[in-house]
Amino acid sequence: MANVVVIGTQWGDEGKGKIVDLLTERADCVVRFQGGNNAGHTLVVNGKKFVFHLIPSGILHSGKMCLIGNGVVLDPAILLQEIDRLNACGVPITSSNLMISRHAHVIMPYHRALDLARENRKGTVKIGTTGRGIGPCYEDKVCRTGIRIHDLFDAKALREKLERSLEEKNFMLQNFFAEKPLDPAAIQEEYLVYGEKLAPFAGDVSSYLHHVCGKARNILFEGAQGTHLDIDHGTYPYVTSSNTVAGNACCGTGIGPTKIDKVLGIVKAYTTRVGGGPFPTELLDETGERIRSVGGEFGATTGRPRRCGWLDMVVLKTSARLNGLAGLVITKLDVLTGIPKLKIAVAYQCGQERLHEVPPELNALEACEPICEEFPGWEEDLRQIRKFEDLPKNTQRYLRAVEEMSGIPLSIVSVGPGRDETILLRHPYDE
């Protein structure tokens, strides 16, 4: 038995969905523990592309239980669309393979309205939010005014909470943002229908996981976004609204920390980020554009083009410390094929100071220049290779450099988007 947390080590979009799908084969259940539908996991199975926003990507495996933990903020409309889409694709979604925590907070229409109004008001200093209402929903959770899944099953409780919330939210929307007010009766009617549809899936995720642990089965914890979007440890304020680090797997699902056996860090062979915020290794040239084009670096949720740059070892080593990584998974290695010279940032130069950790001050990070080591590239196609020793020598050299610089052993190398386009060095459920 082993319980493994899969975490992103950069600014999200590292390819976690494919790895979760790969590891689900050995897991008994997969649980999502934070974030909302601002995250998207994309994977390709038998040539077919699937995009997930809320349901763990392990749902494509029959006989596995997928769970959405209490740390997730959930948009019922998006979840139901995802369920319908999977059913239409021949992937049946029932209470036997999907459970939603009754404690998960619900994204309401006023959350989305406030999210968009605030972002629009920022003008040229936008954070880069997706406008999905994630942040405002987490705000209500912390302010103890949130609406949870179980509230959708109680018309009286839902109406009372809606009226209290909208008294404040409508005042803000009308008087500060000059937006139209929202009608609590209309929202109640809409969300009670959602409640009826979601009721069969609602359950006690914490108790279920406790039961699974007692039977010595494998659990896979699926993180969303990446470490440097963490609300506490990321490049604040250009971050998401939840804790994306591995420690939140416990808080976001109701499982004790002694039940976590290892943490697997997913790192793209280069670096990307979406929206605003500092990005020391960003490439604003033909190489950056080439990586974006070849790698299909456009948001799964928004379609926005991602900013692209060299692999950043300062970012990766900081993530290794914050998450207690036991193994690394390198993704999208094939995207680098054909680039004559590759670089890895090994430190930052900030004025007269050389830094090996990401500084917490935004202005300091924005002033940092990357100090890079250069590596020869390769021309060979990697997508048919299944053994490390069959990789081109320059590719092996690049991977070993990542392993040695980070101090974390390689576990898996992805050489293409397909499930089978993978080199497995150390399976986390074997160790």
UniProtKB/TrEMBL annotation:
Compartment(s): Cytoplasm
Cofactor: Mg(2+)
Pathway annotation: Purine metabolism; AMP biosynthesis via de novo pathway; AMP from IMP: step 1/2
Main localization (coarse): cytoplasm
UniProt keyword annotation of Ligase present: yes
Keyword Nucleotide-binding: yes
Record's keyword terms, sorted: Cytoplasm, GTP-binding, Ligase, Magnesium, Metal-binding, Nucleotide-binding, Purine biosynthesis
BP GO annotations: 'de novo' AMP biosynthetic process; IMP metabolic process
Catalytic residues identified in the record: D13, H41, K141
Residues at which GTP binds: 12-18, 40-42, 306, 332-334, 414-416
Residues given in the record as IMP binding sites: D13, E14, G15, K16, N38, A39, G40, H41, T130, R144, Q225, T240, R304
Domain of life from the UniProt record: Bacteria
MF terms in GO: adenylosuccinate synthase activity; GTP binding; magnesium ion binding
Subunit and partners: Homodimer.
Protein task: Plays an important role in the de novo pathway of purine nucleotide biosynthesis. Catalyzes the first committed step in the biosynthesis of AMP from IMP.
Family recorded in the similarity comment: Belongs to the adenylosuccinate synthetase family.
HAMAP family tied to this protein: Adenylosucc_synth
Protein name: Adenylosuccinate synthetase
Phylogenetic classification of the source organism: Bacteria, Pseudomonadati, Thermodesulfobacteriota, Syntrophobacteria, Syntrophobacterales
